[in-house]
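Dear H.,

Thanks for agreeing to be a second pair of eyes. The structure we're designing against is below in token form, covering all 295 positions.
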């Protein structure tokens, strides 16, 4: 049987690239000024906005299935986790996580008693509220933590965030092209029929290429062991994050995480863009903490 030659949606690809360039210019400009006093606050504002939009998309997906998680409560708890990472520096912890979780429990559970009109769905609704807050609060909170790290090199945190983005994005791009032209064996057909094992291997190849590029340019202290380890670890974590978010979309029966709401041109929703980063950021922090001693 003759196999149809894969065709790429060039119009959508043009929109994706244009949007990516706009975001790239913004983030790279911010990272370049990472040592300025206002930079951590600016990055905090960006992460807070991403948490709000991400929790909103979690809420929209859940409402497709008839559940009623709280956008306000989920966002507030996510912001509390983000604030913990922002404030916990130099051995100080003025907003410990136990306090965030205690107040968060009061907001989520007691708030539902007064403001949730669908209490018959209280269990899944409140569970999804917690999921959105923890998923985005920790995933983006670790990005904030990475951004604020300091070492002998100037803009150490900015360099690590840039490495996180480049390694992850190189993998995503490689997976798309390799999967489109060479994908034969389905990776997880129940979750995402277009993903293939060939694309997954291409993803890891792109991750390794991104890690080598970062070592040669902005992270000169990395050894070859660091390059290979971070390329593989971030690649595996990023692909797991992508599959997890795809599972949620599949369960809600939606194509994009925005579920009909505001989308990023050519990219779907915010969760579609940060799903890999949310899983990869804690892995990168764990590596530089346990291997290189960053706190």
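And this is the sequence the design step returned. I haven't edited it by hand at all.
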């Amino acid at each position: 049987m003759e196999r149809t030659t894969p065709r790429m949606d060039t119009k959508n690809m043009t929109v994706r690239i244009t949007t990516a360039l706009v975001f790239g210019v913004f983030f790279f400009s911010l990272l370049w000024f990472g040592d300025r006093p206002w930079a951590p606050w600016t990055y905090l504002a960006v992460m807070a906005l991403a948490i709000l939009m991400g929790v909103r998309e979690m809420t929209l997906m859940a409402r497709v299935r008839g559940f009623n998680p709280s956008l306000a409560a989920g966002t507030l708890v996510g912001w509390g986790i983000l604030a913990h990472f922002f404030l916990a520096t130099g051995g100080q912890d003025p907003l410990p996580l136990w306090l965030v979780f205690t107040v968060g429990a009061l907001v989520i559970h007691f708030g539902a008693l007064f403001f949730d009109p669908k209490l018959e769905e209280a269990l899944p609704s409140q569970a999804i509220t917690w999921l959105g807050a923890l998923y985005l609060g920790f995933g983006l909170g670790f990005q904030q933590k990475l951004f604020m790290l300091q070492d002998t090199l100037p803009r150490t945190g900015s360099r690590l965030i840039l490495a996180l983005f480049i390694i992850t994005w190189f993998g995503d791009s490689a997976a798309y092209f390799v999967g489109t032209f060479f994908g034969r064996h389905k990776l997880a057909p129940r979750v995402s029929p277009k993903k293939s094992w060939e694309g997954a291997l291409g993803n890891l190849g792109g991750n390794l290429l991104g890690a080598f590029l970062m070592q040669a340019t902005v992270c000169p202290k990395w050894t070859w062991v660091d390059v290979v380890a971070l390329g593989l670890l971030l690649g595996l974590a990023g692909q797991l994050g992508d599959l997890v978010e795809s599972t949620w979309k599949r369960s809600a029966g939606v194509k994009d995480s925005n579920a009909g709401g505001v989308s990023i041109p050519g990219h779907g929703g915010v969760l579609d863009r940060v799903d890999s980063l949310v899983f990869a950021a804690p892995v990168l922090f764990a590596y530089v903490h346990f291997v290189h001693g960053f706190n």
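Two observations from my side: Residues 22-290 form one domain. The first strand starts at residue 186 and ends at 188.

Warmly,
E.
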